[in-house]
């Protein structure tokens, strides 16, 4: 009973730490977590949310990634929530299932409650990295690892390894593109276990059965692909991963690839670096206690990681199972190290060695906690999409009679906002010519992403050659003023001038400008200690967890001027080449400190529609927009109707040549 309570407590700790990490990253996070990678997962979930009984041939998923979007798309449909909400909920569900999987497996490996507790405490802080994913990224690769562990449990620790193992293997193969590799590790582990350790040749029949299962699924999917029932096959995944044909593999090149793989810090720290004593100690006890299934799995994963290096362009995507098994090995060694009876009978030398391992294991845990917290901070601020999602979907819902022209970077994000009852007619990157033919039937959605990446592109405000922007201000009293063009993406200020009070000025001063992430309100009210002081460098680490709030470096141009007479407007003129503006125009009264801002990124629609206009020739026009570097192109201009921060709604205005 005591052991059950202890294990339950460790399981609860695992959930709380991992779930809090998810909560921390999602807390007031702008947009879906993990853009741009998450957009494709959300789009796939949304397909099955909308068409839960659809044929796989119509799905935007490969056969070896079909299980995750299908299950969570079906759940989203049943729960009546959006694909984005389901994607985020999937993180909590996945961590819970992984906790059960780890608990179930380690209890089968060894009945020691201490082993189970240590494993859960360590995995509570497992994070991973972008190169091979990990517990921070609950997507098909995560579930493939979970199914890999469950299949291993069924094969090595169940009396009914065919009844449980074969269905789990089938699910593994249709969960992620690494499924074939993970299934191969199971097969190799069976081979090692039955021949090298048990010397049980009749046990090879288990190997044959699992090979046949893999073969049947593989050949079946290829046949369905050829019959156009499936949109893609395992072969297409192989082609995307493959670096070189096996028969064309050069020994010298293969050796270099292997040396590059084992030279990476992720690999070396376990196998010939700082944590090697912990791994060796764990392996010693696994061998001594004859935990041959775990040893076979570990050896298969280690061999697989080395052999896959010259064959794949994405070698470290296959590091995931090796790290998980290595942590289990370390946890087993620590469970033996911390047993009181091992200390009571040890001599001075043995106790000294054990104390050294205790210190090293404490350092391992310390660095693991730091890695988790630091990566949570990184991912929390990674590729944000500031979108007023509720207002956006309500606006589209009220315009369902329109065709939606979506000029956006990540279509899946917008598809993932739909909930039950919504059916938006999305058209991604249609020709501007199509919109011009029937402008009344179209509503245009364009992005101008402020903090997503350094060079985002998207819709920009037009400032044509020999045109001007009329900045409509409240009555400006005589005094000293400064106008600043901030982060506007202007390559320079040649031909750009400001006119006010009958005076035209063009002597701009250029300064650097750091575009910063607005962190106010981004942190939960209660945080565990490892999230405290993100700007402070931890001992033994050379960088703080939150390295900087600067997203990118930009420029600003400013002019100081004096008004001698009251005026109600300013003109930003352009006598040079046509420009397309992002960023902000800020007018500041240097005497009072009051400022007026025209924000092309996040400005409210009233200011962008009524506070500024385009003057061209003898005409005053509304502020006009287009994407100058992508569809719909510079030839077609649009008028803003509604602003939702990083996305805006537009209607077609006309051709640039006609204004």
From TrEMBL:
Bilayer-crossing regions: 7-26, 66-82, 89-106, 112-128, 135-156, 162-192, 204-225, 270-287, 294-312
Keywords assigned by UniProt, alphabetized: Membrane, Transmembrane, Transmembrane helix
Protein's name according to its UniProt entry: Glycosyltransferase RgtA/B/C/D-like domain-containing protein
